[in-house]
Each structure stands twice: as C-alpha cells, then as structure tokens.
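A reminder before we start the practical. When you read a complex entry, don't treat the lines as separate problems. The point of joint prediction is that each chain is placed relative to the others, so the output describes one connected object in space. Small molecules and nucleic acid strands, if listed, are placed in the same frame. In the example below there are two entries. Take a minute to note the order of the lines before looking further.
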Amino acid sequence: MDIAPSPLAQPFPAIPPVAGVTLRIARARYKQWDRCDLTYVELAPGTTVAGVFTRNVCCSTEVEMGREQVLLGSARALVVNAGNSNAFTGFRGREAVEQIMAQVAQHLECKPSDVFVSSTGVIGVPLPLDKAEAGVAAALNAVPCSWEDAANTIGTTDTFAKGAVATAVIGDRTVTLAGIIKGSGMIAPDMATMLGYIFTDAAVDPAFLQSALSAASDTSFNCITVDSDTSTSDTVLAFATGEAGNMPIASFDDTGADAFAAALFDICRQLSHLVVRDGEGAQKFIEIEVTGADSDESARRIGLAIANSPLVKTAIAGEDANWGRVVMAVGKAGEPADRDKLAIRFADKWVAQAGLAVDSYDEAPVAEHLKGQDISVGVDLGLGDGKAKVWTCDLTHGYISINADYRS
Amino acid sequence: MDIAPSPLAQPFPAIPPVAGVTLRIARARYKQWDRCDLTYVELAPGTTVAGVFTRNVCCSTEVEMGREQVLLGSARALVVNAGNSNAFTGFRGREAVEQIMAQVAQHLECKPSDVFVSSTGVIGVPLPLDKAEAGVAAALNAVPCSWEDAANTIGTTDTFAKGAVATAVIGDRTVTLAGIIKGSGMIAPDMATMLGYIFTDAAVDPAFLQSALSAASDTSFNCITVDSDTSTSDTVLAFATGEAGNMPIASFDDTGADAFAAALFDICRQLSHLVVRDGEGAQKFIEIEVTGADSDESARRIGLAIANSPLVKTAIAGEDANWGRVVMAVGKAGEPADRDKLAIRFADKWVAQAGLAVDSYDEAPVAEHLKGQDISVGVDLGLGDGKAKVWTCDLTHGYISINADYRS
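Here is the predicted structure of the whole assembly.
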C-alpha cells in the first residue's frame, strides 16, 4: 500500500548539529523493505536523560525498561528499531532488548542501562535477534547522518519526516534543542506508535529535565489525539549532553531555567502538532480551545472528548458547521458543564451562546472557515477559569482505507 | 441522501397487541418529508412507568422532564417527535414540550405529567409550536396503527424498523412485553438518538419496574456502542398497563417477578442488538466477551474500550485478525490488567495466551470466521471472576459517508 504525503505535511526544518549527539542509521531489514530501519544515536559521556511513556498497561518491554532507565538519569546511546514494535512478545522480546543494550554497551564501554531502546511496528512478533545484532553492528560503524535521515529512519508509515528546533539563552550560552518524532501513519497490522526524541547541548540536571519534560508533555503530547487509541510503545525521551558548557540547570531558580523550559515546551508543541498533521487520513488540522471550565484538567478532558468524537471529526471533514455535535461531545465528557451557559465558536464566530443558537447566526463566514486546512473550534463553559488547548485531525475515508482496506 | 438497508437488518417480528396500549401516527412535517413523523401512544388508566436516560449533561428538555416524570410512576400517553430533537434549544424547547403535554392532557383528562414526550433529529432548532400542535391534533384522531408503523414513525435515518416481543408467566397469567426502538442511523446535521419503548400488559409496581429496567439496561443498552458518542436525547421507557390482571409485582419475592425481569431483559437485549445492527455503515455485528476481570464493571469498561477502538473496528471491517489492536485497547482502558496473563480469542480459537502469540497459531480458521457477519471476540484477563459482554459494529467507509460526505 502506497500512501500519499499528508496534505498537512510541513517541510523538514534546518536543524544544526547538537554538540555531543551523533546520528547513524543502518538496514536491519526488520521488514521486507529497502530502507534504513535502525537508528543509532551516540551521546557524549555525562548526558542526562528524562522520559515520558505510554500509560497503556499492556506496554512493550522497551517502555518498561525505559521507565526504569530514566530514573538513573544518565544516557550514552539510543537505538530505535522500525518495522517491529516487539510489544506483547513476553520473555523473547525482553531478550532482544537486552541483547541490543549489551552490544552497544560493550562498544561504548558503558553500562547497559545507559543504552535506551525503542521499537515501533508490528505487534506480537519478537524482534529477531540476528537481524538486530547485524543491524546494530552496521550502525555502530556507519558514517554520521543528518537529522532528516534519522527522522525518516525512525518512521514506519509516516508520510513525511518530522523534526523541530528551538534555542534558549542560559547565562552567556545559547543552547540548541533539536527533536525528531514519528507517529500516526500506520498500515494494518502495524500499530501506530509515537516515538519522539529531543536532544540538547544544554547541561541539565536529570531531575529538572524530567520535571520540565513532564510539564511540557502535559500540554503538548498529552493534548493531541488522532483516534483515541493509545499505543503500547509511546515514548518521548529528552537527552541533554551538557556540551554547551552552561552552568547546569537544576531548578527553576537557576539562570536560564525558564528559558530552557519554554524552549522545551516549544519543541514539544511543534513535534506534537507534526504528529497530528500526519494523522491517518488527515485533511484538516483542528485546534480546540476550551475556556471557562471548572479546572484546567477538566478543560483538557472536555477538549479531548470533542477531539475524539467521531461525529465531530466527520462533521469537520465534511466542512459542516454542526455545532450540535460539539454540544454532544461536551456533555458526554463526564466533566462539570451547564448546558445553559455553554457557548461555541468556529474561528472567532460564536454560533451558540447561553445554551442556544445565537439569534443572528450567519453560517456563511463559518462555512468559509471550515473550507480551510486549519480549523479552530472554541468552547466556553462559563463556569470557571479552567482552560486547555487540544489538537486533532478530521476523520476521513483515508483513515478507513489505511486501517481497514489493507489486510495482513 | 438515500441509505440502503443495513446488511445486518432483521425482519420485523410478529408482535401481538398489548392490552391497554393503542398506537397512532400522524404527519407533523417536522422536516420536508412525506412520511409520518409523530407517534402517539395512549395508555390505559393505571399504567405504571419507568425510564432510563442519557448521561449526557447537555441533555434535552425531554430528558430532563422525563427524569422527573418517571419518579411519579404513572403514565397515560407517549408522544414521539421525529426529525427534530429539540435539544439545546433553551426555554423555547421547553415551551414546545409543555404545549404537547397540555394538549394531550386536556384530551385524556389526565395530569400533564402523565404525558411523556421524546424528540429525535436535528439539534439546536426549537420544535415548531404550530407543527407540533397540528401533528398532535391529527394523531389524537387517527385510526390505530400497527407496531411496525409505529416503529417506522419513531425512526429518522434508521434503515429498518426495529421491534421485539417477549412473554412471561406470572401466576396464572401470561403477560406480553412488546418493544420498539430507533437509533444509530443518522444524517448530518442530525444527531443519532436511541429511543426505546417497551409496553406490557403486566401489572407492575413502578418502583419494581424501575429497578428491573435499570438492571436490564446495565447489561443491554449500556453495553452497546456504535461510535462512542452519547446522544443528548437517549431514552428508554417501559410502560405497564396492568390489563393482564396478574397480581401486581412489587418485589422480587412476588410470584412471577423473576420471569418478568427475565423477559424484560430479553426484550432489552433484543432491542439493543437491533440498534447495533443498524449502526452507521455497519457490515458486521461484533460480540466482545470479557472474562477473568477484576470485577464485572471492570470487564464492561474493558469491553467498551475494545468496542470503541477505531483500530479494532477497522481491523474487523478489513477482516484482519489483528489481535495486537485488541491488546492495545485492553491496555488503554485504565482498568486492572496484566499483560502477561492476557489471552485473546476470535470465535473459539485462542490466538494469544499468557502475554504472547500461541505457538501453534493457525490463522486460517480465524480468517474464515472474520469473513462472516457475526463476529465473536473473547478476552480473558486471568485476574478474577469479573465478566461482561458488549456489542458493537465495525467501522467502515459507510460511517464516513453518512457522517461526513453529506453537508447541511
């Protein structure tokens, strides 16, 4: 099956090298394909790490081990396998991950726990030990590659390479943050997995890096949805090599901490939006802003209920200003809401207020807005100060084609 | 837009008259269509009533009022409007419902609170007072009609008329339960609404009727899903005229109580399955059985997570034995689960056990099962005794066509 690039695709940005980060790729041939499918990232000694992982309780071995590894706070390498998620493979899957960790650790003369492994692709098939071993050996000796090459290599059925860059000033140093991500394109019987990696030359204490990454994820990766399904392998890792030579950041009181956290959020937001823009079958990028909710968390849940509603998503695909479906989605969220205080807008045009259609409702400008690629939906609950933004794409025939028409 | 009958449609059953229940239909012309769209059911004096309603907090006026009316326990009439849901219409919508209640109450010389009103169709447009008044007037004077006529008249974009019948022996009397239901076909910008009505000639105390209906709903109407969206108007009402002359049932200690509750559950199950069989775009009817869960409620939530997963539904549409997606859906349910104890089957063929694919897995019989119209998926958690069955349909291009391709 050949999938055309998403109409919402964006060009790969110019990302400079990040000191202490070397990218290499190789062919492990996890699937019958002629492309690189193993990414190896070498990180300078002293690199710190933080991570956020899927909440799916049927998570992969890679996720289980990654959760433990980030607690140790140090990293020397990352290996990403594409074409096989190694999820739901029991002890056999664990053996494969441990083999990769040992192989890289021997090469770098580091602890196996400093080697992070992710895998994405078919579920239920243990990662073949021989292919993994040969692939890692080839990658260790490959010439360094570009960010775009690495972004392409971690992808599976992504329709475009996804990367982002940001900078922050810390004291007298300008640090760079570079990120690549894959996700949301898939072919049955593979499973969509979001894998994101952020690299910075900043010196950052791992505990601070973790708290900054968790906070940034809450309003970026945790506020996007394509189809409400949660992968068994979702992972975002942030690595800080310290090569920029800034005074290490260990708390929000430290110089440049706010700037670094802002840059980290910026790159998380960029990367998360790119995943939505490559959502299966996506024709429109949708931002849903919820205000006036009981709390920020309540606003986020209401936003996700709207973003996950097949009826809302198909209405927007059909360029139909069907605000009744937004009302329905607010009501089913299970969060505090008062029907008679609810207001709904498309772009900046309020279509319903105080629980009923606005008297002077003119559908023409709303219909015009819905013809575009970037759609804005606003909901005001009229209850409190809680607010959130979530992002999703529309639900089209393309989603069905990708996920149902092809058979394994 | 013209929608072909669901391939899962079933013929309308032979339903006998129920003593104390008279059905009439009329043209209120809520939409530009040439069909009856107002159903009026007259109920004998002494009829008791119970109801279950949507949990959507943005519910319609009809639902709000219905909730209060069932607490009073008595009913004389039911009016169902098709083509306009009257939801999210504020005080104007309430005015329309009160007008209908008053008009019927005057005709029957009963209390307005004995007149139940439901509406289904477009959201956000107040039910027009003049059309409602003329429609009710016509219906009051219409000749009685059949169950099938009434089932067709409460429908909106349903592709077939849905009804069911059951009987129970109470002491020396055999009582009849008859039910009609609409739901799950829809055209933008209308909103799918499940409206179900059950009529019996049994004499049943309203409190017992309510507890029996609530219990039956928990494992029927509350265990079906088409697309995870919850209508603002969902309503199931049960009316008992008492004309069969049995000793009234007031508790499970009374003669025939178990038989009546079993028949009520039987009819609820039949009606709920018919809604799934008319699910938008449905090509396959799917039963998901969850066993070995921490509790029955946990099993139900896991079953619904599977049933609502777009990836599971598209895999089944594609006749793809993609059990990895079932694993994913179990894991995202947020319920107790242990990946390494999980077992999954299609029909009676276990495809995964103890957290990985079965060694001797032969896909051929599973692939054969998936080609059929009735699909059975089983999940055993291996944790406890909790169990549940839920029912859904597959997710196909038909769903997108119905909900996105047509514009208002």
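Discuss with your neighbour: DSSP finds eleven helices and 15 strands in chain B. What might explain this?
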